[in-house]
Amino acid sequence: MHRALLSLVMFSSIFLLFAGRSLAAARPCLPTPEMEAALERSFQEFPLAIAMMPDGSLLTLYASAHGTWTMTLQRPDESACIVVAGEDLNLLHRGGLVPERAT
Which domain of life is it from (predicted)? Predict the structure, then answer.
């Protein structure tokens, strides 16, 4: 995962920490298995990264080989809500979560 992707996940996590429940309430939500099936069927997107939020919800980034991406927030009731989606996702680093620093 590259720095931009990590930054996106971190920014979204911080944003959702403060606005998560009200933001998720305004977004399309489905039971998690249905959301995953819809993203796969409609956009050929599959889970790329996950992050556990402080409130126990799960942030998931889905992506396709075509560059489309969707971020969902899975709530404790097992429903997943779309938080944000876009195009042109590019991974710059594929070797692990964070590139190692040269010493």
Answer: Bacteria
